[in-house]
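PROTEIN DESIGN WORKSHEET
SECTION A - STRUCTURE
LENGTH: 375
TOKENS:
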């Protein structure tokens, strides 16, 4: 049945706590034996070659497989050695978790704060990491990143001018550093399959999404422009609506290059075949697809870490079985996850525990990368 999954997912995705969704079952901390072996490399670009998967760092396995393995990054943690070392040994891509969002980088009409984003992008440049730009347009009732001064603009032409200035300034500043941009994040209803009735739709009309892509393309010609969506993994109607939305954008010639399926999942509840089919259906439209915000709370009462590892394995498999060659996690250590602040500590959604020890989920990720990397 989808309903329990949907409740669990919506509980995790939208910051509401519906009946039956509690965060009180603290997942068992991994025992020593559970911690998969992980080799931590010295920081910096990966060794040029690694032929023995058992001794490769996870980043080397990703490079060897031609897979972009990324993580959301919070600039405030980059001064922690364990955070940096674990990140650099594991990932070849980063997504600023909040630092490129409108409310962070452009908090007032004439107020800009690129400091935290610059810190992440300088770090990425220093360590040869890709950077995914997240996000330019996102407005919903519960969780979003549009500052109030923008939500106060109800004149269409004024809003267009402000959006154009925002996109031009941000995309130009990071033109040589960011590989692609999430132009519109979560344009569909969180629960349902219609367009979210957000501020941009209300002021600019139903075609605002295509218009946002056109403004972004004009602001920074040649940049890769993506749409990013959540909870389609648990809602077949919403998944179909996403395919239909993207098909319409492609048909009308909107400059869309890819779609991110966020992947905020719950362990043991994923229909991996349906997820794989969604990836294939989107790729059939001639665009790229990636999993862009993967995290998987360990909720199974009997075997939290084992079921979590299986679900990580399934999620990567659904991507890598198709042309999809990017999986970005929404963080990497249970010490820092948005889920704690939203649902309370203990859901342990990531492949490293609070002490940066690898969990079985990391071994599952490594297995999938090794399989793709086999000659
Ligand atoms: O930086 C301010 C700080 O100065 C202030 O003291 C504090 C308390 O008000 O808030 C801080 O900003 C918070 C920010 O995270 C940085 O910690 C915002 O309030 C808080 O809303 C924001 O939450 C982020 C959320 O998106 C909304 O932007 C989460 O960290 C982030 O993980 C989450 O990520 C989203 C993706 O962008 C889109 N997909 C869903 C995903 C999960 O909601």
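SECTION B - SEQUENCE
RESIDUE ASSIGNMENT:
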């Amino acid at each position: 049945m989808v309903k329990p999954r949907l409740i669990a997912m919506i509980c995790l995705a939208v910051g509401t706590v519906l009946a039956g969704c509690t965060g009180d079952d603290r997942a068992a901390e991994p025992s020593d034996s559970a911690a998969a072996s992980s080799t931590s490399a010295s920081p910096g670009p990966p060794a040029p070659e690694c032929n023995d998967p058992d001794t490769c760092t996870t980043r080397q396995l990703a490079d060897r497989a031609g897979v972009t393995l990324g993580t959301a990054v919070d600039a405030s943690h980059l001064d922690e050695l364990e955070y940096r070392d674990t990140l650099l040994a594991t990932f070849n891509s980063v997504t600023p978790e909040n630092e490129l969002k409108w409310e962070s980088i452009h908090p007032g009409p004439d107020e800009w704060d690129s400091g935290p984003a610059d810190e992440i992008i300088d770090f990425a440049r220093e360590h040869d990491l890709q950077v995914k730009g997240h996000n330019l347009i996102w407005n919903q009732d519960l969780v979003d990143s549009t500052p109030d001064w923008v939500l106060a603009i109800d004149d269409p032409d004024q809003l267009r001018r402000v959006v154009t200035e925002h996109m031009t300034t941000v995309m130009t500043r990071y033109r040589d550093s960011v590989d692609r941009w999430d132009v519109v994040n979560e344009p569909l209803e969180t629960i349902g399959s219609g367009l979210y009735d957000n501020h941009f739709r209300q002021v600019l009309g139903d075609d605002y999404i295509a218009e946002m892509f056109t403004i972004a393309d004009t602001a920074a010609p040649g940049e890769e422009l993506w749409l990013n969506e959540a909870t389609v993994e648990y809602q077949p109607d919403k998944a179909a609506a996403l395919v239909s939305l993207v098909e319409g954008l492609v048909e009308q010639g909107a400059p869309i290059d890819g779609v991110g399926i966020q992947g905020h999942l719950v362990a043991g509840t994923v229909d991996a075949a349906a997820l794989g089919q969604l990836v294939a259906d989107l790729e059939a439209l001639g665009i790229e697809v990636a999993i862009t915000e993967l995290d998987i709370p360990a909720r199974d009462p009997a075997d939290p870490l084992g079921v979590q590892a299986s679900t990580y394995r399934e999620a990567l498999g659904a991507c890598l079985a198709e042309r999809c060659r990017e999986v970005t996690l929404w963080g990497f250590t249970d010490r820092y996850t948005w889920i704690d602040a939203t649902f309370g500590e203990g859901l342990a959604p990531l492949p490293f525990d609070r002490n940066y020890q690898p969990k079985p989920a990391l071994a599952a990720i490594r297995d999938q990368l090794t399989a793709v990397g086999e000659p």
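SECTION C - NOTES
The chain is about 40% helix and 10% strand.
The radius of gyration is 20 Å.
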